Amino acid sequence: MIGGRDVAGLPPYRRTVNTVFQHYALFPHMSVAENVAFGLEQHHVPSAEIATRVPDALSMVRLGELGRRRPSELSGGQQQRVALARALVNRPTVLLLDEPLGALDQKLRKEMQIELKELQRQVGITFVFVTHDQEEALTMSDRIAVMHEGRILQEGDPREIYEHPATRFVADFIGLTNFLDGDVVEQREDRVLVKAGAALSIWCSRRDSVTRGAAVTVAVRPEKIEMHAGDRPPEINCWRGRVIAGTFLGEHTEYCVRLDEGPDVVVHRQNLGLNGANPAAAPGAYVYLTWTPEVSLVLPRSTN
């Protein structure tokens, strides 16, 4: 359905849809302007109109001075903009983008993410953006659909998908997550107690679909976990563990902590202060991990 109209029976060339491919698919023997004009010529748009729409499209993607160049004379980011201009010049109702930033280096990829969002707001049409990059999906989208084996498991805005995943697959696919399998052993008005293993009990926010005795998976994001050195903090959901490894990743340090009474848990600790001067926990050090029931997500235990 596009704009309320069923287009399943229409051949692709009659649908008001254009595509930007992962590797751009620019014609190497044509100039930039000729590439952009190609679709208009195939639709028999008058030459006078083409002469106006092509410069407008190139100006929109900030390539107004490069119309005579060949694709081989452009950078990867510039080629990507030509592919965008070629698609948008046909004024589609929907623009499909098939991993369009996959061929770019990381720095240019970040820049193009911002440019694409601004361009989408400028032209005011729907972009359907396919990506396997989790961070890119969160950055680019107004709404996300997470698919698995041909089915949409969850659809919503980026914050909803990240903070309230509906299944283990969604929680695992979007962002890094710790998973602990267990059974619900107690219910209260606003929370449930999950027994995960012989000695690990976790208080979690209550989920309406969860009942006493249910087999569940508890999901906790690494950045939601607090790590303490020294004495045990007087909090629920608090366990002692030993630091197995610590990896400095710039804005945060990623720790792997092996709980005394449970599995290994990944913790992200923000590098705050001058030169990231958070006291580092050396491998072998004993620490306490805590997290609140509100960030303990209870998911149905399943393969998805």
Walk me through this protein's architecture.
It is a single chain. With 304 residues, the chain is of the alpha+beta class. The chain folds into three domains: 12-142, P-loop containing nucleotide triphosphate hydrolases (Rossmann fold), CATH 3.40.50; 176-220 and 295-300; 222-291, OB fold (Dihydrolipoamide Acetyltransferase, E2P). It has seven helices and 15 strands. The chain has helices at residues 32-42, 47-60, 76-88, 106-123, 134-140, 158-163, 168-173; strands spanning 17-20, 94-98, 126-130, 144-148, 151-156, 178-187, 191-195, 201-205, 215-220, 226-228, 238-248, 252-259, 264-270, 286-290, 297-300. Strands 8-7-6-9-15 form a five-stranded antiparallel beta sheet, with no helix packed on it. A hairpin with a 5-residue loop joins β7 and β8. α1 packs across α2. The protein starts with 16 loop residues before the first strand and ends with a strand.
Topology:
Blueprint: E1 17-20, H1 32-42, H2 47-60, H3 76-88, E2 94-98, H4 106-123, E3 126-130, H5 134-140, E4 144-148, E5 151-156, H6 158-163, H7 168-173, E6 178-187, E7 191-195, E8 201-205, E9 215-220, E10 226-228, E11 238-248, E12 252-259, E13 264-270, E14 286-290, E15 297-300
Parallel strand pairs: 1-2, 2-3
Antiparallel strand pairs: 4-5, 6-7, 6-9, 7-8, 9-15, 10-14, 11-12, 11-14, 12-13
